[in-house]
Amino acid sequence: MNISGRTLKPLLARYPLGPSTAHFILYDHLDFPDDKVQIRKGGSASGQNGMRSCLDVLGRKNAGEVFQVRIGIDRPTNSVSRSVHGSASPLGKTRAVSVLGASELTPNRL
To answer: Among 6, 62, 91, 110, which one has the highest count of C-beta atoms within 10 angstroms of its own C-beta?
Structure first.
């Protein structure tokens, strides 16, 4: 079980959710090809355990205030566990940095 949500507690204490802030959670998605990125506000974890853990920590009230950025990693033909828990590919790292640095990722433009 992925317990990524534990990392949110200290971050939310320092950077609380509010109407003037935007919070993004980036995570991998096996069922998207590696060239697809989806951004949405709120929503379910779509079967991703790390995101489910984050939503549990956020609680129902705040979960809808967070932008989810799903980055496709393509379902591997071999071990899913090895692919998901291993290092990101160079393409995946570049894509994550591009998404994080994109100035158009503001609540007014989504």
So the answer is: 62
Query: Over the stretch 41-69, which tens digit does the pLDDT of each residue have?
Result: 888 888 888 889 988 888 877 788 888 98
The 8-class DSSP code of residue 87 comes to: P
pTM above 0.70, yes or no: no
Residue 82, pLDDT > 70, answer: no
User: By the 8 A CB rule, do 78 and 86 touch?
Assistant: no
Dist CA 68 CA 77 (whole Å): 26
Parallel/antiparallel/unpaired status of strands 37-41 and 23-29? unpaired
Range of the domain at 33: 23-77+87-102
Q: What is the amino acid identity at position 107? A: P
